[in-house]
Amino acid sequence: MQPTRPLGPAIKAETVADWNGLPHGRITDRDGEAQVFTTGLPDLELWWLALGGHITRQPAGSKAALWTLRTDTDHGKGAPIAVYALALDTDQIDPALAHAVHTPAA
After folding, report:
1. What is the model's pTM?
2. Could you give the percent of the chain with pLDDT greater than 90?
3. Which of 21, 28, 31, 44 has the highest count of CB atoms within 10 angstroms of its CB?
4. Range(s) of the domain holding residue 47
5. Is 28 part of any domain?
6. Which residues, in sequence order, are CB contacts of 38 under 8 Å at separation 6+?
7. Structurally, how many domains does the chain consist of?
8. 52 and 74 in contact (C-beta within 8 Å)?
9. Among positive and negative, which fits the CA dihedral 37, 41, 47, 52?
10. How many CA atoms lie within 13 Å of 23's alpha carbon, on the beta-carbon side?
């Protein structure tokens, strides 16, 4: 029996979100990666606490920053996920997660 929907990265990410009670707005599948859109840094932090990964911060226009968590559905062995949080450029991630933040190469 075949599933009614293909089990691509977005479906796998949605399943992980449901199992872990992780907040999200929209989950899409793009180029073999699940893209998860959240409402802010607290949501992204919850995803990191559940799945780990690496976080980056980049400017996103005037007075805004885009925070991105790169992780996967199974602690290094699952479908890739990018979790996004748009925030004010003055907002900071929880200091306890600072070690997970990586500066992108220029």
Report:
1. 0.88
2. 75
3. 44
4. 9-92
5. yes
6. 23, 24, 25, 44, 47, 83, 84, 85
7. 1
8. no
9. positive
10. 11
Contact between residue 45 and residue 94 where contact means Cβ atoms under 8 Å apart: yes
Beta strands 54-59; 33-37: pairing state: unpaired
Exposed (0-12), middle (13-18) or buried (19+): which is 47, by Cβ within 10 Å?
A: buried
Q: Residue 1 domain-assigned?
A: no
Residue 5 has pLDDT above 90, yes or no: no
Both tokens of 88, joined, read: 């004010």
Mean pLDDT estimate for the chain? 91
Residue 19 belongs to a domain: yes
Cα dist. 36→1, 62, 82, 96 in Å? Answer: 29, 23, 6, 22
